[in-house]
Amino acid sequence: GDINGNIVLQKDEREGWGEDVDPVNLAEQSLLNKLIRRTLVRSRTEVEVLQRDPSSPLFSVKTFEELRLKPELLRGVYSMGFNRPSRIQESALPMMLAQPPQNLIAQAQSGTGKTAAFSLAMLSHVNPTNKWTQCLCVAPTYELAVQIGQVIEQMGKFCVDVKVAYAVRGNRMERGVPVKEQIVIGTPGTLLDWCSKYKHIDPKKVSMFVLDEADVMIAIQGHRDQSFRIYRLLSKDCQMLLFSATFEESVWKFAEKVIPNANIIKLKREEETLDNIRQFYVICKSKEDKFMALCNLYGTLTIAQAMIFCHTRKMARWLAAQLTQDGHQVALLSGEMTVEQRAHVIERFRNGREKVLVTTNVCSRGIDVEQVSLVVNFDLPVDMAGKADNDTYLHRIGRTGRFGRRGFAVNMVDSKCSMDIINQIEMHFNRKIPKLDPSNLVEME
Ligand code: ADP
Q: From the CA of 85, how far away is ligand 1's center (Å)?
């Protein structure tokens, strides 16, 4: 399956791929996105409203004032540097804040302002004088729950009577003791325990339920079932809000089961294209040969920054060592690193501290480094069946409309098999990938 353009690998399939190959973990990828995100992903497309509750507000807002928020909340929003609602917020906020409450299913890629939107909705929704839990928010992992909590605490910093608690593993309280915090964020298992086994939360008093990262959640079987069990404990008129970066069949099925008659809004993602990219392949016999070809490219081209993709961690380490020996400043990214370490490496690379980033599959997304002018597939992207992985190819090489800059992509071909893959990629994108002729390198620029 392909969620958010990432490859979802089941555990046993992963083993089939070999330990050394980095699988893409959805929840980690999502956390990484949050850690390295600094600004809103702007979208030029309009929000699509797919299904509307007949009584839902027809309008969208262009300013935060129009929402008539509590002054202390509005102050919190502005203190975060938000001047106006993002695209998705323009439509989502009036629906989420409407009276009577409206259910909402919203899909937009990461970075478009979903978390900020439901954080605002929860802060606006709670009655601070009531010292019990009124809003529940479910997230796939501890780290993601903490990220959401930080947004709420920052946005709500002037709402002094509104408090947040975390229902995450290890956060223990005495059985039967009710939680006083109005907003509780947690992972499905612990949140379910808090609502049923430990009776910290009376689910019937919860009037807003937020399910974030529904796609990630649903991909994890246990999480899906537990989320559903929490949902069944809630009262019938609890307001339901579901957010997802992608919307494939499994997400739809779940969403429609838990939230019939919801407002559904979607924001199309900006498509990646190969339009501004000049693609080539070079024939190499061995990894040493590939390394030589890389050095030749460097000798000829003026390269701002380069990203180099390898299939295995071992290969990535080897190449990084070679490049370092050759005098390059190299950043290395691979799956055995923690998400925080990865975020740190990406941050340094984005700031231009290193000019070359060698990586396995772990991070082909999330790094929209404008100054990357060369992408090298040291190893070509293949799926588990050994076929061309076109989606990964596009994510590595492609740019969205936001990045108009030209770039080069060089594919290293070391066997008949990898030549086949180049041919498959050519066919898929209907675009010729010519052989790189070193004598043409100069005129390429
Ligand atoms: P998502 O949940 O869709 O991934 P976030 O809510 O985390 O998106 O927002 C992405 C980034 O944009 C964050 O850094 C957030 O602080 C910022 N952001 C969110 N809404 C706005 C806004 N209205 N104006 C400016 N920045 C915003």
A: 9
For ligand 1, which residues put their CB under 6 angstroms from it? 37, 39-40, 80, 82, 85-86, 89, 108, 110-116
Q: Which atom of ligand 1 is nearest to the CA of 112?
A: 3
Distance 389 CA to ligand 1 centre (A): 31
Measure the CA–CA gap between 383 and 380, rounded to whole angstroms.
10
3-state secondary structure of 66: helix
Is ipTM > 0.85 here? yes
Q: Are strands 104-107 and 263-267 parallel, antiparallel or unpaired?
A: parallel
**Closest residue (by CA) to atom 23 of ligand 1?**
85
End-to-end CA distance of the chain: 38
CA Rg value for the chain: 24
Q: pTM to 2 decimals? A: 0.85
Give me the residues paired with residue 375 across strands: 307, 409
Q: Quick: pLDDT tens for 84-143.
A: 999 999 999 999 999 889 999 999 988 899 999 999 999 999 999 999 999 999 999 999
Give Cβ neighbours of residue 310 (< 8 Å, ≥ 6 apart): 316, 319, 358, 359, 360, 378, 379
Segment holding 305, helix H or strand E: strand 305-309
Find the 213 Cα to ligand 1 centroid distance in Å: 15
Which atom of ligand 1 lies at the shortest distance from residue 151's CA?
A: 16
